[in-house]
Amino acid sequence: MKFSEQWLREWVSPQLGVQALADQITMAGLEVDAIEPVAALFSGVVIAEVVAKVPHPDADKLNVCQVLDGSGEPVQVVCGAANVAVGQKVPFARVGAVLPGDFTIRQAKLRGVESRGMICSASELGLEEETSPGILELPLEAPAGEDFRAWMGLDDNTIEVDLTPNRGDCLSLKGLAREVGVLNRLPVVSPSVMPVPATHDDTFPVRVEDAERCPRYIGRLIKGVDVTTATPLWMVERLRRSGVRSIDPVVDITNYVMLELGQPLHAFDRANLHDGVVVRLAREGERLVLLDGQEITLSASTLVIADERGPLAIAGVMGGEDSGVSTATQDIFLEAAYFSPLAVAGQARAYGLHTDASHRFERGVDPQLTVDAIERATALLLQITGGEPGPLVDATSQAQLPGEREVTLRSSRLEQALVKALPEEEVTDILVRLGMTVDITESGWQARVPSWRFDISIEEDLIEEIARIHGYNRLPVRRPSARLALRPDHEARTPLARLRRQMVARGYQEAVTYSFVAPELQQAMLPDVVSPRLANPISSDLSVMRASLFPGLVRALEHNLNRQQSRVRLFEAGLVFRGDLDDLQQTPMLGALVCGSREPEGWAGGREKVDFFDLKGDLESLIAMGGEADAWRFEPGEHPSLHPGQSARILYRGEAVGWIGALHPGVKAALGLKTDALLFEVRQDALVRGVLPAFVPLSRHPEVRRDLAFLIKEEQPVQALLDCVREKAGQWLEELRLFDVYQGKGVTEGYKSIALGLTWQHPSRTLNDEEINQLVDAIVAESHQHLGAELRG
C-alpha cells in the first residue's frame, strides 16, 4: 500500500516529521518498507501561459512560442512538442533553471532563433519514467508566474506500507488515517459523503443467486457521462503517488475511491449489458476475455458477475473487456459489492492474476462501506464527467452479512499479558478511539467491534490492540523465571552430531527417507517382521512403518542409480518401528549403504570396488570414537536382507545391536538392481556409549615386541585367536596388532597364516627375555589347546 504524505495529512496531521511518522506506524504493526520523494529535485520552473505560436522558419518540427511567465514581458522560446497550443498553461523552465539530472537551462539559438527557456514535459521534470510524447498541459486555472513545484505540492513523499494479511482495513487512506489518529489522539477529517439524489427513475435489474458469497450488491445507472473528459491533474497526481496509472476519468475515479475508502468498484458500459446483472457461480466451460486481453476458461467454483448472455467479470477480481468502459460509452452501470473473503480467496491466483481489488477482497472489506463508496464515486463522476444519476439498486441479504461481534476483555488477563496494570480510563479511551462501543463491567470491558475490524474476535485480539496503541516500547521487560542450573553433561557419550560429522568426513552423504515404506519392499527385505500398517496412507507406496533403515536406503540407492550415479555412499539416522501398536518399540538406529568404486574417479586412484571390509572400517571408525573398541564383536550370522556368506551380527558388550553385510542376491533380483551394495545398521544407544579416557603415566622403560605367525583352519574366526592371545599375554601387553593374513605357497590347503605383533611394556622396569618367553609359550600352548593353532615355521 502506497500513499502520499500530503494526502494523509489532509485527513490527520500529527506534529511529526515523515521519518518519525513512519517509525510510529511501524511500531504500531504496520511496517513501512520505503519512503521516497514523489518527484526528482529541480528548481526555477514556473507556470506560464502560451500566448503566441508560429512555425520555426528553418525547421518543420519546431515552433517559436511566446509565453507569459509572470515576469511582465513575453518570453520567446523554441518548442518541439506537437501538442503545444496558444492559451495553454504549461511548466516553463526559465534561464538558469536546474532540471533533474543536474541539467541547467541556458539561453541559446536553435536553428538561428533565440530561445530563452524550455517548455517541459512530465518526463523532463521527473514525473514520469517513460519519455513523454508532448509537453505537460496544466489546468487553465493554474496561476501564471507561480512556482510550479510549490503549486503541484511536489515536496512530498510516498510512504509504502507492508501490511500483514489481517490488516486489510488499512488498505486505504481512511484506514491509515484512522490508525494515525488513534496513535496521536487526533481527530480524523474525512471527505464528506452525502447521498446523491436521483435525477431519473431508470434502474438496471440485479439478481444475486449466491447470497452466501455475495451478501450485498449495489448498483446505479448513470446516464450521459463524458468519458473523453480529462481526469483532473490533482487526481492524476494522487493516483501516481499511490502507484496507480491514470487511464480514463471513470476508471480513475473508481481507483481513487478504492484508495481513499478501501472499497473496490467497477463500471460497466450500459450499452453492452443485456436484461440484467446476475451474481452467480460460473458454468463449467464458460469463457471470458478480461480487461487485460487475456481469454480464460472459467471453473465452476468461480463467482462471476454476468448478464443473461454470459459472464461480464470475475467477482472481486477483474472485469471483462466486452463490457468495459470506452471512449464511446455514454451510460454506465456503477457497482459496489461486498464479497466474502472465502469467495475471492485464491480465485485471482487460479487464473494467474493479482489485482488491487482481489488483494482487498481476499483480506476483507468493510461490509458497511458499500453505500458510502458508491455515493462518493457518483459525486466525483458528476463533478468530472457530468451525467444523470439514477436511484440505487440494493440487493442485500442481511442474514448473510457478517454480524456484530462482542468481545469480553478481563482486566486481570490484560495485566497478566502486559505485565502492567493500565488505568481503566486509558484502556477505555484506546478501545473507543479504535471505533469500538465499550461497556465497563465488574471484571473488565465488553467491546462491540466495528465492522471494519474483521481481525478482532477474541480477547487476545483486544489485548494486542491495547499493547499496540499503548506502545510496545512502554511495556516492562520481563525476563523468564526458570531454574537455569546446568544439566549434567554425559562426557562418556558421543553426541549423534559427532557421529554424523564422522560419516561425512569419510565421504558419506546423509539421507532422510520416509518413516513409511512400501509393504512389498519391506516384505522382500524383512519377511518375518511385524510393524504398524497405516489405516489411511497418503500413498500405497508409503503404507507401513519401516522396521529397518535398510528399505529406505535401498530405495534411495535405486533412485541414484536410475540417475547415472554409480558411486553411492549414504547414511541415515532415524527411528525404526517394530511390533503392534499396543506393544510398539521405537528404536533409534544409524545405518549406511555403499556401492560402486572404493575411491572417487581420478587419475591417482584405482577402480577397485568397495568391499565388506571398507564398510566395516567405516563402522569401526564410529566405534573408536567411544573409546571402547574392545567391547565390540562381529560374529557370522544370517539376516534376510544380507548375503548369507557376507553378513555379520554386531555385538556390544555381548548384546546384539546391529547387522552388517552385502545386500542379499534375492533382494537385488526382486528390486532389479544390477550392482552390489553393502549395508550396516546399528542401534544409536550403543554407538553413543563409551568410556571416559584416563591418563596413564608414560613408561620410561623400553618396549619389547614379538611377532608370531599362527596356522589356523580357514573357517576359524581370527577374533577367537585374538581373544585367546590377549587372555594369556599378561597385564603388561600394550598392543596386539594383526598385520598379515596369508594363504598360498608354503601354507597347507584349508589353513591360513595369521601374523600378530605383540608389544609389552612395564611402567617401572625393563622386562627381560625370560618373562617374555614364558608369556609367548603360554600363548602358543593356549592357542594350540583351544584352537588347534600351530606356530608357522
UniProtKB/TrEMBL annotation:
<keyword id="KW-0067">ATP-binding</keyword>
<dbReference type="InterPro" id="IPR012340">
    <property type="entry name" value="NA-bd_OB-fold"/>
</dbReference>
<dbReference type="InterPro" id="IPR041616">
    <property type="entry name" value="PheRS_beta_core"/>
</dbReference>
<comment type="subunit">
    <text>Tetramer of two alpha and two beta subunits.</text>
</comment>
<dbReference type="InterPro" id="IPR005121">
    <property type="entry name" value="Fdx_antiC-bd"/>
</dbReference>
<feature type="binding site">
    <location>
        <position position="455"/>
    </location>
    <ligand>
        <name>Mg(2+)</name>
    </ligand>
</feature>
<dbReference type="InterPro" id="IPR020825">
    <property type="entry name" value="Phe-tRNA_synthase-like_B3/B4"/>
</dbReference>
<dbReference type="Pfam" id="PF03483">
    <property type="entry name" value="B3_4"/>
</dbReference>
<keyword id="KW-0030">Aminoacyl-tRNA synthetase</keyword>
<feature type="domain" description="TRNA-binding">
    <location>
        <begin position="39"/>
        <end position="149"/>
    </location>
</feature>
<keyword id="KW-0648">Protein biosynthesis</keyword>
<dbReference type="InterPro" id="IPR033714">
    <property type="entry name" value="tRNA_bind_bactPheRS"/>
</dbReference>
<dbReference type="InterPro" id="IPR045864">
    <property type="entry name" value="aa-tRNA-synth_II/BPL/LPL"/>
</dbReference>
<dbReference type="InterPro" id="IPR005147">
    <property type="entry name" value="tRNA_synthase_B5-dom"/>
</dbReference>
<dbReference type="GO" id="GO:0009328">
    <property type="term" value="C:phenylalanine-tRNA ligase complex"/>
</dbReference>
<feature type="binding site">
    <location>
        <position position="465"/>
    </location>
    <ligand>
        <name>Mg(2+)</name>
    </ligand>
</feature>
<keyword id="KW-0460">Magnesium</keyword>
<protein>
    <recommendedName>
        <fullName>Phenylalanine--tRNA ligase beta subunit</fullName>
        <ecNumber>6.1.1.20</ecNumber>
    </recommendedName>
</protein>
<dbReference type="Pfam" id="PF01588">
    <property type="entry name" value="tRNA_bind"/>
</dbReference>
<dbReference type="GO" id="GO:0000287">
    <property type="term" value="F:magnesium ion binding"/>
</dbReference>
<feature type="binding site">
    <location>
        <position position="461"/>
    </location>
    <ligand>
        <name>Mg(2+)</name>
    </ligand>
</feature>
<keyword id="KW-0479">Metal-binding</keyword>
<dbReference type="InterPro" id="IPR009061">
    <property type="entry name" value="DNA-bd_dom_put_sf"/>
</dbReference>
<dbReference type="Pfam" id="PF03147">
    <property type="entry name" value="FDX-ACB"/>
</dbReference>
<keyword id="KW-0694">RNA-binding</keyword>
<dbReference type="InterPro" id="IPR005146">
    <property type="entry name" value="B3/B4_tRNA-bd"/>
</dbReference>
<keyword id="KW-0436">Ligase</keyword>
<keyword id="KW-0547">Nucleotide-binding</keyword>
<feature type="domain" description="B5">
    <location>
        <begin position="402"/>
        <end position="477"/>
    </location>
</feature>
<dbReference type="InterPro" id="IPR045060">
    <property type="entry name" value="Phe-tRNA-ligase_IIc_bsu"/>
</dbReference>
<dbReference type="InterPro" id="IPR036690">
    <property type="entry name" value="Fdx_antiC-bd_sf"/>
</dbReference>
<dbReference type="InterPro" id="IPR004532">
    <property type="entry name" value="Phe-tRNA-ligase_IIc_bsu_bact"/>
</dbReference>
<dbReference type="GO" id="GO:0005524">
    <property type="term" value="F:ATP binding"/>
</dbReference>
<feature type="binding site">
    <location>
        <position position="464"/>
    </location>
    <ligand>
        <name>Mg(2+)</name>
    </ligand>
</feature>
<dbReference type="GO" id="GO:0006432">
    <property type="term" value="P:phenylalanyl-tRNA aminoacylation"/>
</dbReference>
<dbReference type="Pfam" id="PF17759">
    <property type="entry name" value="tRNA_synthFbeta"/>
</dbReference>
<keyword id="KW-0963">Cytoplasm</keyword>
<dbReference type="InterPro" id="IPR002547">
    <property type="entry name" value="tRNA-bd_dom"/>
</dbReference>
<dbReference type="GO" id="GO:0000049">
    <property type="term" value="F:tRNA binding"/>
</dbReference>
<dbReference type="GO" id="GO:0004826">
    <property type="term" value="F:phenylalanine-tRNA ligase activity"/>
</dbReference>
<comment type="similarity">
    <text>Belongs to the phenylalanyl-tRNA synthetase beta subunit family. Type 1 subfamily.</text>
</comment>
<dbReference type="Pfam" id="PF03484">
    <property type="entry name" value="B5"/>
</dbReference>
